[in-house]
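Hi there,

I know you've been waiting on this one. I reran it after we fixed the sequence typo, so this is the corrected version. Both the input and the resulting structure follow.
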Amino acid sequence: MAEDVWRTVDDHFGRMLLGPDPVLDAALEANAIGGLPAIDVFPAQGKLLHLLARSIGAGRILEIGTLGGYSTIWLARALPPHGRLLTCEIDPRHAQVATSNLAMAGFAEIVEVRVGPALDTLSTLDPAVDGPFDLTFIDADKAANTEYFEHALRLSRPGSMIIVDNVVRNGRVVDAGSDEPSVLGTRRLAAAVAQEERVSATVIQTVGAKGYDGFLLALVH
């Protein structure tokens, strides 16, 4: 019953505050046709990413985990005309769908989709050349979240924001006996962030159309 209520509330506020969005709807339809898993952020979360990027005046954004580009479109909409967004996707088929969706949304010129393991891509990035990035959104394989976060921090500047999605894992993150790689990766991330003096961070639990989860938000000093 709780999840039904969460979804109903999401739909209620979505109609009031987001309204219809043919571009994003078309992207989700293209994802479904392409056989991509339906694990995109839900609209309210996408709007939150957009608002956070706008609130800090993000001109350069890094995304780790593109999928079909749904969250990428939300983030790209926050960029100024001269802004740039780099997004990393390991699956060539997902990247192809995302590239098409981004072109359809009008962002082909300001968004670059890098195909391949994100850690390989990130290791080639130089903050003096490719960054610094004002905002990084991490939504990829959870076992490598700590390494993604370390790269994001290396590529950031004081005042940059780093967001890591899916850190609550339906509450399993507090199960000390879990051997699930995504849970272990998330616990390792939290421990690393807790010891990192260059950031201030918090975790916000969320409920909604995609169930029970949460995200980590870190501000670079």
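Quick highlight: The first strand starts at residue 60 and ends at 64.

Best,
R. S.
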